[in-house]
Design goal:
single chain, mainly alpha, globular
């Protein structure tokens, strides 16, 4: 919650300080940064799964550094591409992409704690990461650093957070030979465990990439189909989407280790989707009730979107359920299910480019595509979980 609130605070203050003329650039670069976090999210899920299965910490950390090096190389190549596509400076593009390797290392440490059910230490690391990313960015914005300065400061904060997270993990696990409590049993972490390849991470990456792309595509397309003022208003509206999307993140974090265990997987998947759906309903109702307060926090320039905030929240709520379903696919290594999400992404972008000409039409397309995609994936996951339960169970 601390990390999420810090992220929303950053976007609200950036929307006010940068204004409708400059916020869309910042929001689009944040969307790029979110896409760059895909390998990090995949890393956390794979590390947590491997720790549940008894992988050694040395093997896990070796995999982290290999993946971080690959991500850094890809980020360097993408800097001029992002600068050209989004019409931003090379410095701003580099600042957005530069955080990717640090996020991989940081998420790997989080995965160790998650897989070991060390949730108190994990909470500390998550709060630290959120604060370390946001506080420097806010200072940079307040000093007039603009989008590039804020993103560069955030990247530096994440590097520091990754370093501190490593120390917290070492303290929580005591040593590489410590016994970690996983799913109610003890798993001995061997100092010289078998090496873990990057292929499991790459498979998880394409699942996370599909989800993050679907959740961020509208923020990139909006700069193409709408003028700067409406693009900034739409971008601020997506704060409601992000709140509904990330609010129930703890559900997946806590239940994921159970999803990775065959004896508990089916029940954990059903519990996760049920709780995520309930929280989504609460988020949509909350957005509708809180809508009149939006201009007070963000400024009167954003008043035109206050009546649509519940629709933005509905978009985020459906994506949260989709995220829970895809997490279960990673946990049981059925990552081919992500193809449904990739198809949904292609359909969404095509429809937006062809028909979106207003804030309402853009969010309407996003909601409809998310609804269909989430329904298909959730039904497949639930059916698979029911089959895994076996007759009479």
């Amino acid at each position: 919650m601390t990390a999420n609130v810090a992220g929303y605070l950053l976007q609200m203050l950036a929307g006010r300080w940068l204004g409708v003329a400059g916020f869309s650039e910042f929001a689009s670069l944040l969307a790029v940064q979110l896409l760059c976090a895909v390998p990090a999210l995949a890393m956390q899920n794979v590390v947590a799964r491997e720790v549940v299965r008894g992988a050694g910490l040395r093997a896990v950390r070796a995999m982290q550094w290999r993946c971080a090096a690959l991500v850094a190389a890809v980020a360097v190549v993408l800097i001029p591409v992002v600068a050209t596509v989004l019409h931003v400076s090379v410095l701003a593009s580099a600042a957005a992409l530069g955080a990717a390797p640090a996020l991989v290392i940081l998420s790997g440490e989080q995965g160790i704690l998650q897989g070991a059910n060390q949730f108190r230490a994990l909470a500390t690391v998550l709060a630290l990461a959120g604060t370390a990313r946001v506080a420097p960015a806010l200072i940079a914005l307040a000093l007039g650093g603009g989008s590039a300065g804020a993103l560069l400061a955030a990247a530096c904060g994440l590097v520091a957070a990754a370093f501190v997270a490593g120390r917290i993990v070492r303290s929580a696990t005591a040593s590489d030979s410590a016994d970690l409590s996983i799913g109610g049993r003890a798993a001995t972490v061997e100092p010289h465990a078998q090496a873990i390849g990057v292929l499991p991470v790459l498979r998880a990456v394409q699942v996370q990439a599909a989800l993050m792309a679907l959740s961020s595509a509208d923020l990139i397309v909006v700069r193409i189909v709408l003028d700067d003022a409406d693009a900034s208003r739409y971008s601020l509206g997506t704060i409601a989407t992000k709140i509904a999307f990330w609010l129930p993140q703890a559900v997946g974090v806590v239940l994921y280790p159970r999803m990775a265990q065959p004896t508990h997987s089916a029940r954990a998947i059903r519990d996760a989707l049920s709780v995520l759906s309930l929280i989504g309903v609460v988020a949509v109702v909350g957005a509708a009730l809180a809508a009149p307060l939006a201009p007070l926090f963000a400024g009167q320039d954003y008043a035109p979107i206050q009546g649509m905030l519940w629709i933005f929240a509905l978009h985020g709520a459906m994506l949260a359920v989709l995220q829970g379903a895809l997490l279960s696919a990673i946990a049981v290594e059925r990552t081919g299910l992500a193809m449904v999400t990739w198809v949904g992404l292609a359909v969404e972008v095509a429809l937006m480019l062809a028909f979106a000409d207003s804030i309402g039409s853009l969010i309407g397309i996003a909601v409809c595509v998310a609804a269909v995609t989430t329904t298909i994936v959730a039904l497949v996951v639930l059916r698979t979980a029911r089959n895994d339960d076996g007759p009479g169970r």
